[in-house]
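Input record (one chain):
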Amino acid sequence: MGTAVVLVIVVVCVILAVKSIIKGKKSGSGCHGDCTRCGGCH
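The corresponding structure, as predicted from the sequence alone:
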């Protein structure tokens, strides 16, 4: 039973992380290695 609870928690965390990544990509956040866009590299 405890293993199932931990599994559910891990799955929820993975889903939230994936949603956050997708949302970030759609909004264009981050520089994606292009320092002219974000200025965060230097």
